[in-house]
């Protein structure tokens, strides 16, 4: 019954975008999530942690986050997510919004 | 010499029944509440086709319940022919053995029981229709012998006022009465003078003032407070990539939060895109409260309604340039005419669905619920009998590469049929599936066909948060399937999309992502909505809109 | 006697000096209207010789004016009546030094607050809020306040009649003593978790299970009383201890119980949060000083 | 960080706890304490396999309005209905404690310090009370907040802001009632028992919980304004709530006693007169009480734009 924690690393193909400062975005509502993006020296890679009550979607999580990391060309970022059954569409959207916050 | 044939058996049979009922019918055709069940027992005979009026809005609920109380020993094996079965009483008649067979269009809250009763052999299903299809059959092979209808008011002669919620009443009464059938009406009130006569007294056989006003469901009210950023993103894509791209003027909006979002974006984002006057000028639509800001901003020239919507009475009355209102000032909403307009005179239908398969067939059916169709399929298809042209219809047709394979070089248009939904729905259920649940339902409920709301070949555009698939631009099924995969996101079907294939489709303008459309998803925020809550709608209407109690949060 | 549930008045008589309880009189104040908040029993007694204010619930009373109030429920009238008794206590000893302020004894057996329409229209939340503020004020003024949970101490009713006391003692669970927000079966239904799993979890984690022993672990009650006969002694002992603790400025009441919760290992996150916030504020406090 | 100026125009109802907190104080002045980067989420939710939030659903911190340090507590209704557990409760209590300690420190350093340089606490409530997943700890936290309020009395004013989706119910309904000032919007609700429980208790004929109009006229901002249970009824904008708090920021702490509903013997006497009226009237509907207060067309008043409502509404006095 415990919460599931999913951890993995990934690397963007043309990793070049680094964060100036950490950012937090979102609310863990039903079907929603919050995310922290933090700069972190990872040799150009990205470290991901997802905490969620739902299990069995590991491959989809990986795919969604990798797509985001690739599109944003992120490097040296730790991504920490608290999820409450967000759909992949919502996950993509929140990640994108979190990133947009850093630019704002 | 051949035997003399009786040519008026129906008429004589009706006369007999009415004679048996005469003692229950007083002056002005009025029947007392306590006499309604014996009245029904007098006029209904075993095996009759019987209509109980009701659709997804108003319901002849008192008469429906009265029909449940007749003695099944006297009255049984009825064949119910009616638009919808949303009330418990509509199914109770099958449970009690009063009715046996059902032909209908829309299941509503009882759709689970319909499936169950079919499986248990309590209910023999004729067919599931669209409204228009069923109305057509009222005039051919499914003519009701007895119809139980509802109206707001009757006068002392038995004339009826159906007013704001006219809906199915004219077509039911006309089909029944002109084939010598019997029409019994429940009304909320009997008055000296009606605001206007919608149904003349000589088409009515009996009138009862029901103990409670008839039930009516505010089915088309969407609280703007529940419109999400994802709805807004999809709505922005629709407005820019479809409404604007094709300049569609004559539109029906299926009910849902996507179309509510579109309606609420017209005065803001629509205006930014310069679309006012170029799109949404004529609509076939219930009086959606979320249309108020667009109407107030001068977007809409005319709206014809299928039915009424609770709380919109005063607003509609005060906007007679837009709505079809009678000499008394109140709306008349004739569903048969609205559906006709919806089938023939629209350039676009846009709605949402629960599931869509890899070919683009879509359905709202789940494995254990016979939900029915209502009117959507008549609007969500290309009307093959259409012969007039409009620019948007022609453009959509011109873009169909395979048109010439069927009709050579003859120009022909095509209705835009748009399905918009998020790739995952409620509870993370994928909207894109290999096989529709409709197949399972067909099996479970012993249907001849899986109930498909909109067939793949009718869908011209598919919109998800990933982008728009312009299916009308696809030359063949393979390309259509690829385009569907390209917008199916992280569903299993979407994960099968090949990046290079998707890129080709984007280059060819068959798939457009938000980026291709020049829409930044981060700007899809609720600030864009012309009204963000029910209160805003009331304010937009200048206090004319009077939301039902359950929608009032102040 | 195997339970005191529904017998708040019996418990009252057992705790105070025999025959000393004078109902409806607190200091100079007299509660003359018998129909006003009949379920709230207030009065003055002596406890081991010293004058105390006593507040209890009468499970037999029914409030004719507010039909959702019965069986010891604290409704609007009851809440304000209890608050008045506390203010009358404050007034009675207003000129006395802190060390001589009379104790308040709360006999706790109440199943809840009035959940009605009229209650919401007129703001039931104020009545219980008023009582809590009054108790907190009396506690801070020096009155020792001891709550004795003898029966039901349920959710909001316990919040107002009990949890603002300096010290709380509770009769052992074997007498049916109930302390909870909701029974575990209801919790299980609402949070959609299997009851067996919750029962198992509650062995190691006291935060959601119902019962005085779990509140003890959390520091929510200071002491458990193993036998009914021990109630009087326990209350007398707490009053004496409180006089000493208050004189030394030791934390009592909710703050004291928070510390107890940490010490007993039931609420260990709370102090971590407080420490973290205090440190974080200290680091930026200068920004918020005048002329910064 | 969301754009502060844009936040001001936002609907308070739709704003998240963090947006409300940020928007309430002057631009750039908010320091979050035990914020999401501290990752102090509830260990009890983890044990139950429930989703957690880095801030446990309560945003706490300190900012400024003008010269006044404003300590903010803001509850997030979208996370488990804003319910209060051990961590969230500790954050609330500590925020008030910090404000009181800071006030004492500033006063000790400068006994003549201006009123508008001393701390104020603002709480944006959005909660149904105790979090059932950790109900015992949640209940105890409620008692601590109440106690903290009493300790703040006369030292630091406490202002309640209620205009979020969940409203303010359960034990937090007591807590809000015990603040010095209550500011609501028409979308806010304040009470003890949620509508579903009342329906369960009294039957659907007496109280239909799905009838939102009924629910709002029983516990909503307009009703609470007429009853005197909320002091100020403001528009549903972050800027409007902020403006009201800014206005209050000019007052010395002693002036806040005038706004209170409860918290003294005299106020309890006054509330008892109100209860006597309830007993006498036995109202079937809140509108009966509106009428009693001198509002002849309660339905019309209930539906009028909020500006007109403020101008026209007669408030109940006993």
TrEMBL record, chain A:
<keyword id="KW-0963">Cytoplasm</keyword>
<dbReference type="Pfam" id="PF06857">
    <property type="entry name" value="ACP"/>
</dbReference>
<dbReference type="InterPro" id="IPR009662">
    <property type="entry name" value="Malonate_deCO2ase_dsu"/>
</dbReference>
<keyword id="KW-0597">Phosphoprotein</keyword>
<dbReference type="InterPro" id="IPR023439">
    <property type="entry name" value="Mal_deCO2ase/Cit_lyase_ACP"/>
</dbReference>
<protein>
    <recommendedName>
        <fullName>Malonate decarboxylase acyl carrier protein</fullName>
    </recommendedName>
</protein>
Automatic annotation (TrEMBL), chain B:
<dbReference type="Pfam" id="PF16957">
    <property type="entry name" value="Mal_decarbox_Al"/>
</dbReference>
<protein>
    <submittedName>
        <fullName>Malonate decarboxylase subunit alpha</fullName>
    </submittedName>
</protein>
<dbReference type="InterPro" id="IPR005777">
    <property type="entry name" value="MadA"/>
</dbReference>
<dbReference type="InterPro" id="IPR037171">
    <property type="entry name" value="NagB/RpiA_transferase-like"/>
</dbReference>
UniProtKB/TrEMBL annotation, chain C:
<keyword id="KW-0456">Lyase</keyword>
<feature type="domain" description="CoA carboxyltransferase C-terminal">
    <location>
        <begin position="1"/>
        <end position="279"/>
    </location>
</feature>
<dbReference type="InterPro" id="IPR009648">
    <property type="entry name" value="Malonate_gamma"/>
</dbReference>
<dbReference type="InterPro" id="IPR029045">
    <property type="entry name" value="ClpP/crotonase-like_dom_sf"/>
</dbReference>
<protein>
    <submittedName>
        <fullName>Biotin-independent malonate decarboxylase subunit gamma</fullName>
        <ecNumber>4.1.1.88</ecNumber>
    </submittedName>
</protein>
<dbReference type="GO" id="GO:0016829">
    <property type="term" value="F:lyase activity"/>
</dbReference>
<dbReference type="Pfam" id="PF06833">
    <property type="entry name" value="MdcE"/>
</dbReference>
<dbReference type="InterPro" id="IPR011763">
    <property type="entry name" value="COA_CT_C"/>
</dbReference>
UniProtKB/TrEMBL annotation, chain D:
<dbReference type="GO" id="GO:0016829">
    <property type="term" value="F:lyase activity"/>
</dbReference>
<dbReference type="InterPro" id="IPR017556">
    <property type="entry name" value="Malonate_beta"/>
</dbReference>
<protein>
    <submittedName>
        <fullName>Biotin-independent malonate decarboxylase subunit beta</fullName>
        <ecNumber>4.1.1.88</ecNumber>
    </submittedName>
</protein>
<dbReference type="InterPro" id="IPR051047">
    <property type="entry name" value="AccD/PCCB"/>
</dbReference>
<dbReference type="InterPro" id="IPR011762">
    <property type="entry name" value="COA_CT_N"/>
</dbReference>
<dbReference type="InterPro" id="IPR034733">
    <property type="entry name" value="AcCoA_carboxyl_beta"/>
</dbReference>
<dbReference type="InterPro" id="IPR029045">
    <property type="entry name" value="ClpP/crotonase-like_dom_sf"/>
</dbReference>
<feature type="domain" description="CoA carboxyltransferase N-terminal">
    <location>
        <begin position="1"/>
        <end position="257"/>
    </location>
</feature>
<keyword id="KW-0456">Lyase</keyword>
<dbReference type="Pfam" id="PF01039">
    <property type="entry name" value="Carboxyl_trans"/>
</dbReference>
């Amino acid at each position: 019954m415990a919460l599931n924690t999913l951890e993995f690393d990934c690397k963007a193909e043309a990793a070049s975008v680094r964060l100036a400062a950490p950012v937090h975005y979102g609310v863990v509502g039903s079907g929603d999530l919050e995310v922290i993006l933090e700069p972190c020296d990872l040799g150009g890679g990205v470290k991901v942690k997802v905490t969620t009550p739902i299990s069995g979607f590991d491959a989809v999580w990986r795919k969604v986050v990798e797509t985001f990391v690739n599109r944003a060309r992120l490097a040296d970022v730790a991504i920490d997510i608290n999820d409450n059954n967000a759909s992949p569409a919502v996950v993509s959207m929140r990640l994108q919004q979190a990133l947009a916050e850093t630019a704002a | 010499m051949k035997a003399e044939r009786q040519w008026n058996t129906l008429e004589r049979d009706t006369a007999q029944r009415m004679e048996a009922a005469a003692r229950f019918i007083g002056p002005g055709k009025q029947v007392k509440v306590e006499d309604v069940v014996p009245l029904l027992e007098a006029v209904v005979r075993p095996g009759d086709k019987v209509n109980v009026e009701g659709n997804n809005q108003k319901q002849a609920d008192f008469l429906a319940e009265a029909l449940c109380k007749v003695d099944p020993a006297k009255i049984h094996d009825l064949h119910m022919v009616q638009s919808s079965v949303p009330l418990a009483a509509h199914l109770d008649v099958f449970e009690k053995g009063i009715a046996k067979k059902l032909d209908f269009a829309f299941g509503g809250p009882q759709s689970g029981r319909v499936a169950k009763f079919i499986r248990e052999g309590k209910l023999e299903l004729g067919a599931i229709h669209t409204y228009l299809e069923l109305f057509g059959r009222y005039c051919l092979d499914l003519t009701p012998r007895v119809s139980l209808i509802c109206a707001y008011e009757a006068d002392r002669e038995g004339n009826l006022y159906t007013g704001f919620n006219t809906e199915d009443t004219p077509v039911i009464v006309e089909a029944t009465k002109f084939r010598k059938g019997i029409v019994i009406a429940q009304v909320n009130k009997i008055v000296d003078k009606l605001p206007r006569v919608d149904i003349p007294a000589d088409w009515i056989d009996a009138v009862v003032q029901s103990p409670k006003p008839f039930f009516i469901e505010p089915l088309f009210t969407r609280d703007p407070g529940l419109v999400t950023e994802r709805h807004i993103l999809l709505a922005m894509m629709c407005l820019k990539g479809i409404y604007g791209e094709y300049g569609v003027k004559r539109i029906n909006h299926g009910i849902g939060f996507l179309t509510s979002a579109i309606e609420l974006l017209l005065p803001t984002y629509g205006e930014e895109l310069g679309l006012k006057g170029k799109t949404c000028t004529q609509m076939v639509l219930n009086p959606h409260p979320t249309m108020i800001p667009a109407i107030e901003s001068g977007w809409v020239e005319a709206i014809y309604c299928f039915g009424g919507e609770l709380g919109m009475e005063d607003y509609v009355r005060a906007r007679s340039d837009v709505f079809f209102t009678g000499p008394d000032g109140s709306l008349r909403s004739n569903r048969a005419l609205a559906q006709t307009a919806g089938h023939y005179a629209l350039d676009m239908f846009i709605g949402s669905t629960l599931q869509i398969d890899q070919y683009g067939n879509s359905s709202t059916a789940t494995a254990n619920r016979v939900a029915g169709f209502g009117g959507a399929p008549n609007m969500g298809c290309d009307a093959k009998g259409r012969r007039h042209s409009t620019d948007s219809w022609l453009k959509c047709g011109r873009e169909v590469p395979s048109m010439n394979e069927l009709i050579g070089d003859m120009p022909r248009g095509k209705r835009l049929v748009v399905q918009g939904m998020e790739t995952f729905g409620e509870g993370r259920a994928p909207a894109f599936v290999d096989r529709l649940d409709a197949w399972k339902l067909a099996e479970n409920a012993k249907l001849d066909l899986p109930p498909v709301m909109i067939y793949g070949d009718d869908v011209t555009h598919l919109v998800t948060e990933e982008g728009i698939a312009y299916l009308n631009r696809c030359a063949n099924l393979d390309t259509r399937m690829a385009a569907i995969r390209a917008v199916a996101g992280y569903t299993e079907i979407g994960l099968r999309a090949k990046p290079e294939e998707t890129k080709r489709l984007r280059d060819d303008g068959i798939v457009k992502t938000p980026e291709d459309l020049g829409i930044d998803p981060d700007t899809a925020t609720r600030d864009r909505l012309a009204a963000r809550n029910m209160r805003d709608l009331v304010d937009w209407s200048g206090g004319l809109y009077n939301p039902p109690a359950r929608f009032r949060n102040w | 006697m195997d339970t005191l549930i529904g017998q708040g008045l019996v418990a009252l008589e057992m705790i105070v000096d025999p025959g000393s309880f004078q109902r409806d009189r607190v200091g100079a104040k007299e509660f003359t209207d018998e129909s006003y908040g009949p379920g709230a029993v207030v009065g003055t007694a002596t406890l081991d010789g010293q004058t105390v204010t006593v507040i209890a619930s009468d499970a037999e009373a029914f409030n004719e004016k507010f039909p959702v109030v019965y069986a010891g429920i604290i409704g609007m009238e009851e809440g304000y009546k209890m608050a008045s008794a506390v203010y009358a206590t404050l007034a009675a000893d207003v000129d006395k030094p802190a060390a001589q302020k009379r104790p308040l004894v709360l006999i706790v057996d109440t199943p809840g607050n009035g959940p009605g329409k009229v209650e919401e229209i007129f703001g039931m939340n104020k009545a219980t809020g008023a009582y809590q503020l009054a108790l907190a004020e009396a506690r801070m003024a020096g009155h020792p306040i001891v709550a004795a949970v003898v029966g039901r101490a349920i959710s909001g009713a316990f919040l107002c009649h009990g949890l603002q006391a300096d010290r709380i003692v509770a009769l052992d669970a074997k007498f049916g003593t109930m302390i909870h927000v909701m029974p575990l079966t209801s919790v299980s239904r609402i949070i959609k978790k299997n009851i067996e799993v919750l029962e198992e979890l509650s062995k190691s984690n006291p935060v959601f299970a119902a019962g005085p022993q779990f509140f003890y672990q959390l520091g929510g009650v200071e002491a458990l009383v193993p036998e009914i006969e021990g109630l009087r002694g326990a209350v007398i002992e707490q009053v004496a201890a409180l006089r000493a603790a208050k004189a030394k400025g030791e934390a009592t009441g909710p703050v004291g119980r928070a510390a107890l919760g940490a010490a007993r290992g039931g609420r260990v996150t709370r102090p971590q949060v407080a420490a973290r916030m205090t440190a974080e504020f200290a680091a930026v406090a200068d920004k918020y000083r005048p002329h910064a | 960080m969301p754009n502060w100026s844009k936040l001001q125009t936002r609907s308070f109802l739709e704003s998240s706890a963090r947006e409300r907190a940020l928007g309430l104080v002057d631009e750039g002045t908010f320091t979050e304490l035990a914020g999401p980067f501290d990752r102090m989420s509830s260990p009890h939710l983890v044990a139950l396999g429930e989703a957690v939030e880095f801030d446990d659903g309560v945003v706490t911190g300190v900012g400024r309005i003008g010269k006044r340090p404003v300590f903010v507590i803001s509850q997030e209704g979208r996370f488990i209905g804003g319910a209060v557990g051990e961590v969230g409760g500790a954050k609330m209590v500590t925020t008030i404690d910090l404000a009181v300690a800071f006030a004492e420190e500033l006063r000790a350093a400068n006994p003549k310090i201006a009123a508008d340089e001393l701390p104020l606490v603002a709480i944006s409530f959005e909660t149904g009370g105790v979090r059932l997943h950790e109900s015992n700890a949640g209940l105890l936290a409620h008692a601590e907040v109440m106690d903290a309020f009493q300790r703040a009395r006369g030292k630091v004013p406490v202002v309640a802001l209620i205009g979020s989706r969940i409203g303010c119910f359960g034990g937090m309904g007591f807590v809000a009632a015990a603040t010095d000032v209550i500011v609501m919007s028409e979308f806010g609700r304040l009470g003890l028992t949620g509508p579903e429980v009342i329906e369960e208790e009294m039957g659907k004929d007496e109280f239909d919980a799905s009838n939102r109009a009924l629910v709002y006229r029983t516990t909503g901002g307009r009703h609470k304004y007429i009853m005197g249970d909320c002091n100020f009824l403001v528009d549903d904008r972050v800027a409007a709530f902020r403006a009201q708090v800014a206005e209050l920021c000019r007052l010395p702490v002693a002036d806040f006693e005038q706004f209170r509903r409860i918290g003294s013997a005299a106020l309890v006497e006054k509330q008892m007169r109100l209860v006597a009226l309830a007993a006498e009237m036995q109202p079937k509907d809140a509108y009966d009480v509106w009428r009693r207060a001198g509002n002849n067309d309660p339905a019309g008043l209930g539906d009028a734009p909020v500006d007109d409502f403020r101008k026209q509404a007669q408030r109940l006095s006993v």
